Amino acid sequence: MIAPLTPARIVFDLDGTLIDSAPDIHAIANRVLSEEGAAPLGLEEAKSFVGNGAPVFIERMRAARGLAEARQAALLARFVGLYDRAHGLTRPYPGVIAALDALREAGHRLGICTNKPVAPARSVLAHLGLDPYFEIVLGGDSLPTRKPDPAPLMACFEALGTGACLYVGDSEVDGDTALRAGIPFLLFTEGYRKVPVADLPHRACFNAFDTLPGLVADCLSAP
User: Fold this and answer.
1) Each residue of 98-131: pLDDT tens digit?
2) If you compute the radius of gyration of the chain from its CA atoms, what whole number of angstroms results?
3) pLDDT tens per residue, range 11-26
4) Which residues in the chain are classed under CATH 1.10.150.240?
5) 3-state secondary structure at position 67
6) Cα maximum dimension of the chain
7) 13, 20, 24, 174: which one is catalytic?
8) Counting Cβ atoms within 10 Å, is residue 37 exposed (0-12), middle (13-18) or buried (19+)?
9) Predicted confidence (pLDDT) at residue 1 exceeds the cutoff of 80
10) C-beta atoms surrounding 217 within 10 Å
């Protein structure tokens, strides 16, 4: 068991970091588009719209299919209404549960900071049995601002008490959030990132969750 001298506060992004939710997001997006008589999105196209929260996802989806700006509110409401229970196709990435067990056993306190609306975030965590790991879950609608504004991330750390801070995410939004907050960033490279790894500021990167507990220990022991 990895046992640092002082337990840390570790906050995770959700979509593309702990869970691969793109298949469900893709499915409900295409249901909304079908109701509008618009062509469906491809899976990779849907992934490219993820990261800045549901309103921006709908903006990008709407623009890609030439739907009127006046439809934004209605499309968003329909999407969010379906999103709360859209977890049938979502899975944790391999090794996530074992990594969370190891981190918690080492005494670390864990949280979630996501741009996903908080209701579907909590719903999918409960569905996958991940909710007991996290003391705080903040979504894109929990505060007046969302990532890359650092306020939600800092609110998560504050809720977790004291100790060193690490943020784990997969995207440009996550990297920018960590940079603005002045928090070391661990980059999961197998999520929904749109740019090369070298273009994202990060303390370390990893492509498999079985390496994360050791990586955390290395980061915490580094000067």
Assistant:
1) 999 999 999 999 999 999 999 999 999 999 999 9
2) 17
3) 999 999 999 999 999 9
4) 22-83
5) coil
6) 58
7) 13
8) exposed
9) no
10) 17
Which tens digit of pLDDT belongs to each residue from 146-200?
A: 999 999 999 999 999 999 999 999 999 999 999 999 999 999 999 999 999 999 9
The H or E element spanning position 57 is helix 54-64
DSSP state of 78: H
Domain span(s) for CATH 3.40.50.1000 in the chain? 9-21+90-221
Backbone angles phi, psi at 11, to 5 degrees: -110, 135
Confidence of residue 5 (pLDDT cuts 50, 70, 90): low
Rounded distance between C-alpha atoms, residue 27 and residue 89, angstroms: 9
Length of the chain: 223
**Does residue 179 contact residue 158 with C-beta atoms inside 8 Å?**
no
Per-residue tokens: 165: 């801070």
Q: Is 13 a catalytic residue?
A: yes
Phi, psi (rounded to 5 degrees) for 217: -60, -40
| CATH, domain range 22-83 | 1.10.150.240
Q: In CATH, what is the architecture of 9-21+90-221?
A: 3-Layer(aba) Sandwich (3.40)
